[in-house]
Amino acid sequence: MDGLRDFIDFEEGNIPLILSVPHGGLFECDAIPQRSKGILGIDKGTIELSKNLIEHIRINYDKEKLGFKRPFYISSNVRRNKIDLNRIEQEAFNQNSFLAREIYRFYHKKLKEAVYNNLKKFGSSLLVDIHGFEKNNRPPGLRDVDVILGTNNLGAFYNEPIPKKDWKNNIRGKIIKKLVHLDIPIAPGHPRRREYVLTGGYITTKYGASSIQNSRAIQIEFSDRIRISDKSLKDKVIKALADVFFDDFVGV
């Protein structure tokens, strides 16, 4: 499996946070046939964004003299038009490709290992699946946002429904509160406006609370404005998220 490091980048962590970046890879990989169905575009800039987020989390721990701390990190170097790691295996790649199958299974093997390692060591785990969206592609009439949170309607946080009054107390609620305070448009975030909402995909379903007890998962979608065109906004959002994650895990 060591040879798959050319296709999958990962680093072990020592806090119960996992960052997954399945759609940011640029490697064309001629040995893998192209997919014929589904979304094929790259979530440009998500790998760089996730690494910046890791660095800000590390800095927060360092400032408080809490030692070297970092989340588990995994990303695909392969273009999404070859493998979509946020799909079930039967839909993720050309089924005739042995290499694509090995890469896909390796990625999910590492995610599963990270989740269960966190549960064993810390009693809980949070997986953050990082994606991108283009603001101009949102359906007409919906509120313009720069960050979208998906938790499969909170099924990735809780294996049973919770009262709406308690929604703000989880990590999703804390992220919303932080970004709203900074005037960064986020969905869900406005109860009286139609919003562009993405509920989350295969990864949040597979590794969230509805599938694994005490494991939480959230899909964070960043606009192209954050990822590509507005560095000051990108820095602002990354610092805000790093602060929220640090506050959530500082006691572990």
Domain count: the total is: 1
Strand order, biggest sheet? 1-3-2-4-7-5-6
Assign an overall shape: globular
What is the number of beta strands? 7
CATH architecture, please? Answer: 3-Layer(aba) Sandwich
Beta percentage is 15-25%
Distance between the termini: 31 Å
Helix content: 25-40%
Largest sheet: 7 strands, mixed
Give me the number of helical elements: 7
Low-confidence stretches: none
Question: Any idea what the radius of gyration is?
Answer: 18 Å
Which CATH top level class fits?
Alpha Beta
**Sheet/helix structural class:** alpha/beta
SSE string, helices as H and strands as E: EEHEHHEEHEHEHH
Tell me the name of the CATH homologous superfamily: Zn-dependent exopeptidases
Q: The CATH topology is what?
A: Aminopeptidase
Mean pLDDT: 91
Descriptive notes:
The chain has 252 residues and is α/β, with parallel strands linked by helices. The chain has one domain: Aminopeptidase, CATH 3.40.630.40. The chain contains 7 helices and 7 strands, in the order ββαβααββαβαβαα. The chain has a 7-stranded mixed β-sheet with strand order 1-3-2-4-7-5-6, with helices on both faces. The radius of gyration is 18 Å and the shape is globular. The model has no long low-confidence stretch (mean pLDDT 91).
